[in-house]
Amino acid sequence: MKELTTEADIQKLDEVLDFIDGYLEQWNCPLKALHQINIAAEEIFVNIAHYAYGDSTGEAKISIGKTGEFAEITFTDSGMPYDPLAKPDPDITLPAEERDVGGLGIYMVKKSMDEVSYEYKDGCNVFTMRKLIGGREN
Fold first, then answer.
1. What is the pLDDT, as a whole number, of residue 107?
2. What is the DSSP letter of 129?
3. Domain locations along the chain
4. What are the pLDDT digits (tens) for 85-109?
5. By C-alpha distance, which of 83, 87, 64, 88 is closest to 126?
6. pLDDT of amino acid 95
């Protein structure tokens, strides 16, 4: 696994996406999967930047690796404990004005990734997502 530790600040989003893209391109990730991973990574990092540390600041660690045909990206922060997977999925059949606010971004992450998981471990939020990208292990 390769790691990037950066300030959990929205201004660092491009750095995070460039880090992830660099490895996905090395692994010849299909364009569709690359776009899906980028959208999901943006959602998770932006949520950490906006909510994990409240009014203070902190760090986010992004890890990326490849196992078999899957890319695995993990986001770790030591902010307030929060399991984004615990909230029920939004009812997307309802008109927008009748839906509860929030939850659509993580819903998109869950639908676009092959696997997502969350755990609170050693005082940290650990969110992992996996996506089938093909190819051999690197």
1. 85
2. E
3. 2-132
4. 888 766 666 666 665 655 567 889 9
5. 83
6. 65
Distance CA 118, CA 109 (A): 13
pLDDT at 138 > cutoff 50? no
SS (H, E, C) 79-127: CCCCCCCCCCCCCCCCCHHHCCCCCHHHHHHHHHCCEEEEEEECCEEEE
| Neighbour count for residue 56 (Cβ, 10 Å) | 7
Q: Which residue has the tokens 């893209």?
A: 21
Q: Are 113 and 129 in contact (CB under 8 A)?
A: yes
Residue with the two structure tokens 């999901």: 40
Radius of gyration of the chain from Cα atoms?
15
Concatenating the DSSP letter of every residue in 32-60 gives HHHHHHHHHHHHHHHHIIIIITTTS--EE
Domain 2-132, CATH among 3.30.565.10, 3.30.300.70, 3.40.50.10230, 3.30.1300.10: 3.30.565.10
